[in-house]
Design goal:
By secondary structure, the protein is of the alpha/beta class. The protein is 37% helix and 14% strand. Strands 1, 4, 5, 6, 7, 8, 9, 12, 13 and 14 form a 10-stranded mixed β-sheet that branches. The chain is globular and about 75 Å long.
Length: 484
């Protein structure tokens, strides 16, 4: 069963089916296959050749963010349970401190459930309550839908190496174990290449190398918070000589007879050209005037993303872009009370400023940012922190978001150490068993982005195990938090 439902097998089967379908159809026409297959691939990406612009921005919280002190249970019965569990480690938030960030959904949750955001997240709370943000409850990696009993049986496939930082960071970003060479953001970029004026700016990371924005064809372009990354050897005169600088530029970019040398020089030449384009592009556009908080590395990354969006028409007018930014420091096994609120403040202030920048640029309904992380953490305390978990709550922001709403199922507040009904969505110590998969979360974003329904399974290798077609209408392929 594990082989049948594995991410790798699902992706391979989908790619094989697509290839055979295309080649079988084209062989009947007598068309030259390599050329025709390329044309068929371009045709399937035609949905991205629209006149509008859309961008997705993954805001990654490295280290595994604590769900329980981010989206905090607030109704009296649930809060009482939360406080009893978390006060043991002195990491429970007071109910009075949560009142200013109480979330008021347009449609109340069943059973009187209520949530507030961390007290430091006033900006994101305001966006939620004004209809510009939503919360996806209890989402995490799944290969197939699972109950606690099925999880405990050992007879059902699980994501690779649960609760391991490196593996789960890879699973969240690529839907495969560490070592994966493409992410679901990059695979969406693959489909968008044909419709982008300059395909080099389809997938961009402002946080260094990230598998999320690596595609099978789309290459991730990495940028620093100060702008394009220059090749230092030819940025300035060498030993004070412009002639040496020019000679160096020729050496590292000219064609070579040796295959590997030639490819290396081609990559270098492309990097130099793109650096010049970006430097000119962000320099020629009017500055983004929205205030971003100082001393906030995430805000610096999101500001350069906003500047790139502002300069998109001078960068080849890409119609679809995928961005990756990241903030670290969430592996808080101890010293949680002193550090987590500050992390939440940085997250909220940066994402709020970025949303305001998209309003300034007139693209608020065309740009959607969303959070992701290695995993959630335990509700039970671990010294004066929390331990590695599984499911978590995440936030989606943008003008196209169906905001002021919760999506998915609100899990009971419990450490999950009994067989009582309230413990069925926990696997011990308050680790959440996800009731929504990353594939479902991603499919909702991908559909809004423009990925055709028939291409979703190739982008998201476990998605074929969810939804009505898989006999699981209780796990829909689209969670509904995005407008068309």
């Amino acid at each position: 069963m594990k082989k049948l439902f594995s991410s790798e097998q699902g992706a391979a089967d989908e790619s094989r089916r697509a290839f055979l379908r295309r080649s079988g159809q084209l062989a009947l026409t007598g068309t030259a296959l390599p050329f025709a297959l390329n044309m068929a691939a371009i045709g399937e990406a035609a949905a991205f050749e629209a006149s509008d612009y859309k961008a997705l921005v993954c805001v990654y919280m490295a280290g595994g963010n604590d769900y329980a002190n981010t989206v905090v249970t607030y109704d009296d019965p649930s809060y009482a349970k939360y406080y009893a569990i978390r006060s043991a480690g002195d990491i429970a938030l007071s109910k009075a401190s949560l009142a200013p960030t109480l979330l008021t959904p347009a449609t109340p949750l069943p059973d009187g459930r209520q949530y507030a955001l961390n007290p430091a997240m006033t900006g994101l709370a305001a966006l939620f309550n004004s209809g510009k943000a939503a919360v996806q409850l209890n989402v995490g990696p799944l290969v197939v839908p699972l109950t606690r009993t099925q999880y405990a049986s050992g007879g059902y496939p699980l994501p690779s190496k649960l609760m391991s930082h490196n593996d789960q960071a890879s699973v969240w970003q690529s839907l495969a174990a560490e070592g994966a060479n493409s992410g679901w953001g990059g695979r969406m970029g693959d489909l968008a290449l044909a419709g982008n004026g300059n395909s080099n700016f389809t997938c961009i990371s402002a946080a260094g190398n990230a598998v999320f924005v690596s595609g099978q064809t789309a290459l991730q372009y990495q940028i620093s918070t100060g702008g394009a990354v220059a090749v230092n050897a030819i940025k300035n005169n060498v030993y004070g000589s412009s002639a040496v600088k020019a000679a160096m530029a020729t050496l590292i970019t000219q064609p070579r007879a040796h295959l590997m040398e030639n490819e290396y020089n081609k990559v270098t030449a492309r990097s130099i050209n793109l650096e010049s384009m970006v430097t000119a592009g962000i320099g020629s556009t009017s500055s983004v005037t929205t205030a971003f908080p100082a001393g906030n590395a995430l805000a610096d990354q999101l500001k350069i993303v906003a500047r790139l969006i502002a300069a998109r028409n001078t960068l080849g007018s890409p119609k679809r872009q995928v961005f990756f930014v990241s903030i670290g420091g969430f592996d808080l096994h101890d010293n949680f009370k002193a550090q987590h609120p500050a992390m939440m403040a940085k997250l909220s202030e940066a994402m709020t400023a970025f949303y305001n920048a998209t309003v300034e640029l007139g693209v608020a309904s065309q740009v959607t940012s969303f959070t992701a992380s290695d995993f959630g953490r335990t509700l039970a305390v671990n010294g004066n922190g929390s331990d590695h978990g599984w499911g978590s709550h995440h936030i989606v922001v943008g003008g196209a978001v169906k905001g002021s709403a919760f999506y998915g199922s609100a899990p009971p507040v419990s450490v999950g150490n009994t067989t009582a009904p309230e413990d069925q969505w926990h696997i011990g110590q308050g680790r959440l068993l996800p009731s929504t998969s990353v594939d479902q979360y991603a499919a909702t974003l991908a559909s809004w982005f423009g990925v055709a329904d028939g291409e979703l399974n190739a982008v998201l290798p476990n998605l074929h195990n969810f939804g009505s077609e898989a006999g699981r209408p209780d796990y829909p392929r689209n969670m509904g938090f995005m407008n068309a």
